[in-house]
């Protein structure tokens, strides 16, 4: 069975150590233990359900552009996460004992990058498309069944769990999106649509102000000219959110909210 596994690509220091693990780090290392997961549901998946050679979608989480950046595979089945016994490790757990381990991990092997990493923005957009509507031409190669499989992904419906099962058809569809691309135009059109829907209202405000002034040239005094631009400018420039990180969909509960935290191996 395929899986989706999350890691944080941006630097973040915990107990003096950088816990980032990007696709660049993964490709350089080749095979890495998936340590530091401290969620019982994710632990149980790694301990009991993941099998050798299972396919994996490697996902960048908690960053500006979250999405699936590579394909990987399970290189070693579940075994105790020994980092929990190390007091110096960022995710040390004193309750976990060597003779009675609480946490488990697997080894994951890098296979290849995706040329067009399917972003969370794309996946969430596809999940909003109606099954009865015609499939957008930009993603016609995944078929309606592929779209429906993506709509059913836990990433969409229960986003915060750091280790998630993925249906085979959903895995194949995500990989197709990552290999063939073409969907970038679909996202661009959506963003342009949002921009157009907000722009006319703002222009109208300014246009209306001008329309009120133009029929009465004799009333257009210096004081009138000074008042108009200030109020219109403030309405047409909403606060900027440039640089804000995209977040994964909420899980609806406290379980599964911790993402996979990986220690970069030098």
TrEMBL record:
Keywords: Nucleus. It is found in: Nucleus. Residues 185-266 are annotated as: Disordered. It comes from the Eukaryota. One of its GO terms (cellular component) is nucleus. The keyword Nucleus applies. Coiled coil: none annotated. Residues 3-176 form the EVE domain. Residues 223-248 have a biased composition (Basic and acidic residues). This is EVE domain-containing protein. It comes from Kwoniella mangroviensis CBS 10435.
């Amino acid at each position: 069975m395929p899986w989706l596994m999350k890691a944080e690509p941006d630097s973040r220091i915990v107990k003096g150590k950088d816990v980032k693990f990007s696709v660049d780090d993964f490709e350089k290392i080749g095979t890495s233990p998936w340590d530091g997961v401290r969620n019982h549901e994710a632990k149980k998946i790694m301990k009991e359900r993941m099998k050798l050679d299972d396919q994996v979608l490697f996902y960048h989480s908690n960053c500006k552009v979250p999405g699936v950046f590579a394909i990987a595979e399970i290189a070693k089945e579940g075994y105790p996460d020994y980092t929990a016994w190390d007091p110096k490790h960022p995710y040390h757990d004193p309750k976990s004992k060597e003779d009675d381990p609480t946490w488990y991990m697997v080894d994951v092997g890098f296979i290849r990058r995706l040329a067009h990493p399917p972003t969370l923005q794309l996946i969430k957009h596809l999940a909003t498309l109606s099954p009865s509507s015609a499939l957008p031409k930009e993603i016609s190669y995944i078929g309606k069944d592929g779209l429906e499989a993506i709509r059913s992904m836990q990433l969409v419906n229960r986003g915060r769990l750091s280790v998630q099962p993925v249906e085979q058809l959903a895995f194949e569809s995500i990989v197709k999106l990552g290999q063939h691309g073409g969907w970038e135009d679909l996202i661009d059109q959506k963003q342009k649509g949002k921009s157009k829907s907000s722009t006319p209202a703002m222009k109208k405000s300014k246009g209306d102000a001008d329309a009120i002034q133009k029929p009465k040239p004799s009333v257009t005094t210096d004081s009138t000219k000074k008042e108009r631009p200030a109020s219109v400018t403030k309405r047409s420039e909403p606060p900027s959110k440039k640089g804000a990180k995209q977040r994964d969909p909420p899980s609806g509960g406290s379980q599964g909210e911790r993402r996979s935290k990986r220690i970069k191996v030098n």
